[in-house]
Amino acid sequence: MRARKLVYASRNPSESLRSRLAARGWHVEVVAGANEVRRSLRRDVAMGGLLDLSSGFDPHELAALAPSLALINVGWVALIDAAQRRNASVRQLIRDCCFDYVTVPASDERIVDSIGHAYGMAVLNEVPEEEREGRPETGMVGACDAMRTLYRLIGKVAASDVSVFIAGESGTGKELTALAIHARSARRHKPFVAVNCGAIPAPLLQSELFGYEKGAFTGAHRRKIGTIEAANGGTLLLDEIGDLPLESQASLLRFLQEARIERLGGQTSIAVDVRIISATHVDMAGAMREGRFRPDLYYRLGVLHIEEPPLRARGKDIELLAQYTLDRFRKEAGRRLRGFSPDAIAAMHNYGWPGNVRELINRIRRAIVLSEGGQITANDLELGDYVTLAPVSIAQARVIAERQALELAMLRNRGRLSDIAHDLNVSRATLMRLMHAHGIHRGDASADLAQELERERRAFAR
Ligand SMILES: Nc1ncnc2c1ncn2[C@@H]1O[C@H](COP(=O)(O)OP(=O)(O)OP(=O)(O)O)[C@@H](O)[C@H]1O
């Protein structure tokens, strides 16, 4: 059994209570002031806390105690006298921070029992490390099948040096995945440089990517190294690659073929060794069909293809991510927050998360600051309308289930048409019809292109 530590904050500690606690296996530390309380608490393990308000803490001292009382890993019990029970600020403090209170005089036995329960609740708040973190070394949280597949893929991809294409809806974690690949690759001690191709005006993109020499154009007062050169030896993430203007696509393709760049206004070509990872939420098949993206560049960029799962397809991971976000930002609340109410959990599962993990983080951070109770509710997340699913007819339920099955099979099989069809036990023609009916384009893209990609990959390998 692990040692249970108890911080006993009192101006007048009771000897008999101390010995009763010791007899029940508690390692008791007696402290008198807010600073001592803070120093004796740990954040990484569950602990018990006994706050003897009846021994006389003034309001100023209570305010100083607030950050310690807000720690989620400490199960606090307050001791108060009858008069304090009528005091509004004491009542508020107990409601916000304590699992229980005992009105004194009371038997030592009663107090020790209450501390045991509070500690038990604090233990429940501990999320097992492996479950909470998913992949601690990548900063990625998630334990669902789709995320486990992603971790495996990241491991494999990191071991090779070919270019990687990451597709996925906005906010699903494409940049985080790129970072994880870099961090686990042989290039990890060299730079990781990210450039958002969609955010830089087209006329400036060439000089941003390739750099320029002094005097290359009006205003070029000194030489500037471009992002490709800045990433030399390391990894370059071309984010929102689907928005890359055609002019830059030609220059990028040339660089990929020759592994050399020329700064604007420069005379010499410079050898650059970078690994390219590109990412987009754009439907690339559509972009190529409409002539907005060069297929030859796409094949070069996408030797390996990763599909980032949308948050709505991650099941229980939604709760893991929510808890992780709350733990990360809870200090912004300035008071104790004891997790999510059941209606908040239900709403998080019912909602479709168009903005994916980024939206989840934003909603929770806003709720941490604005919520007033001890728990974050569906209304705090502005998801009050999603607590119960609107009644659905059998026909609607079929459509929802069908789409879900399609999305999951596409993730499992990374867009390979014949495998998806096999998985779902339908013909390829039926699969195409279903995808069309559900307006699923990305899978369409990866499906058709995966085959061409595979051909290209083989051609490169030869
Ligand atoms: N699995 C995860 N675990 C923890 N945090 C995550 C996870 N996935 C994404 N995030 C967080 O969500 C936010 C959005 O992630 P990121 O920027 O990587 O998404 P993206 O797909 O690149 O977005 P966009 O398409 O808008 O560029 C970031 O704050 C990131 O840290």
UniProtKB/TrEMBL annotation:
<keyword id="KW-0805">Transcription regulation</keyword>
<feature type="domain" description="Sigma-54 factor interaction">
    <location>
        <begin position="140"/>
        <end position="369"/>
    </location>
</feature>
<keyword id="KW-0238">DNA-binding</keyword>
<dbReference type="InterPro" id="IPR009057">
    <property type="entry name" value="Homeodomain-like_sf"/>
</dbReference>
<dbReference type="InterPro" id="IPR027417">
    <property type="entry name" value="P-loop_NTPase"/>
</dbReference>
<keyword id="KW-0067">ATP-binding</keyword>
<dbReference type="InterPro" id="IPR058031">
    <property type="entry name" value="AAA_lid_NorR"/>
</dbReference>
<dbReference type="InterPro" id="IPR025943">
    <property type="entry name" value="Sigma_54_int_dom_ATP-bd_2"/>
</dbReference>
<dbReference type="GO" id="GO:0005524">
    <property type="term" value="F:ATP binding"/>
</dbReference>
<dbReference type="Pfam" id="PF25601">
    <property type="entry name" value="AAA_lid_14"/>
</dbReference>
<dbReference type="Pfam" id="PF20161">
    <property type="entry name" value="VpsR"/>
</dbReference>
<dbReference type="Pfam" id="PF00158">
    <property type="entry name" value="Sigma54_activat"/>
</dbReference>
<dbReference type="InterPro" id="IPR025944">
    <property type="entry name" value="Sigma_54_int_dom_CS"/>
</dbReference>
<dbReference type="GO" id="GO:0003677">
    <property type="term" value="F:DNA binding"/>
</dbReference>
<dbReference type="InterPro" id="IPR045343">
    <property type="entry name" value="VpsR"/>
</dbReference>
<dbReference type="InterPro" id="IPR002078">
    <property type="entry name" value="Sigma_54_int"/>
</dbReference>
<dbReference type="GO" id="GO:0006355">
    <property type="term" value="P:regulation of DNA-templated transcription"/>
</dbReference>
<keyword id="KW-0547">Nucleotide-binding</keyword>
<keyword id="KW-0804">Transcription</keyword>
<protein>
    <submittedName>
        <fullName>Fis family transcriptional regulator</fullName>
    </submittedName>
</protein>
<dbReference type="InterPro" id="IPR003593">
    <property type="entry name" value="AAA+_ATPase"/>
</dbReference>
